[in-house]
Amino acid sequence: MKLELPRRPRRNRKSAVIRDLVREHEVTASDLIFPMFLTAGQSIQHPIASMPGIFRFSEDLLLNEIEACMNLGLKSFALFPHLEDSFKDSMATISYNKNNIYLKAIRTIKKHFPECVLMTDVALDPYSSDGHDGIVKNGKIINDETIDVLCKMSLAQAEAGADILGPSDMMDGRIGEIRSVLEEAGFSETSIMSYSAKYASAFYGPFREALDSAPKNGDKKTYQMDPANQAEALVEAELDYDEGADFLMVKPALAYLDVIKLLYDNFEIPIAAYQVSGEYAMVKAAAANGWLDEVKVRNEMLTCIKRSGAKIILSYFAKDFAAWKKNQ
Ligand code: PBG
Predict the structure, then answer these.
(1) What is d(CA 93, CA 83) in angstroms, rounded to the nearest whole number?
(2) How many domains does the chain have?
(3) Is residue 306 flagged as an active site residue?
(4) Mean pLDDT per 10-residue segment, the chain (328 residues)
């Protein structure tokens, strides 16, 4: 049998070099942001059971970890604080106290590594005794009062030297308010990466273990988006774009590639995707059982997230990926 085929797509796959030539998307270490967890104290490297290879670091060891990443060509970091319950209150007051461990660590990191990009988290949950991203009153999350706290927190983080603020709270109108507070205080160079389409996802489970930040009551469905909705992501993204966001983020990543593509097709600013804790945990667990090849699955996932339109990927695999990439 000999077919007369004018087009044989397999010709473009016939060798490794041809495949390299025609490859459309490739992930590099410079596409990645490494989320890291900070805790109080000294010489602490506390493992997160559901996220093998990920730790809560005290500031001293966090600096070592950042240095190791920088040497691998991984230079962007997203920092999250873990606080003891005794520091938390219903108004997340500690979040903008200049002497809190988070703001101190931001100052130290930027002093040691001025060239790194340091992204922060703007939300109440790590500091709130209610474990919600906003202020809770009578069982409800109060939007506008929460924004006062978010603005104070944002200003404190900008003052500490953060390069990118990451509002992850999903309150309405927060990007515009944060932007104007920053402008008034002279921080026009501080960027905002909005968690624009952040879904109420069960994939955040391991993260809440890492930070001890699970909601004390109820869930986050009155502010985070319903996983069943796509068009609503455009509403959120349009608002954030109009209010001055520099980047739009979709979170989680792998189960939301359609949303990433939707934002990519509709906006000119860079789209980021957050491959969240549960996505990491699934791969790690399967690999530990010998059921999946971790490196291949990890690389495939990251490539597919990039292919769908995310220029930037926040990933707990960032350091391992950068180390692997360096040896290629
Ligand atoms: C909360 C926040 C969460 C994550 C980042 N910021 C959890 C949540 O919304 O409950 C999740 C990250 C992850 O799962 O890796 N402001």
Answers:
(1) 13
(2) 1
(3) no
(4) 97 98 98 98 97 98 98 98 96 98 98 98 97 96 98 98 98 98 98 98 93 90 97 98 98 98 98 98 98 98 98 98 97
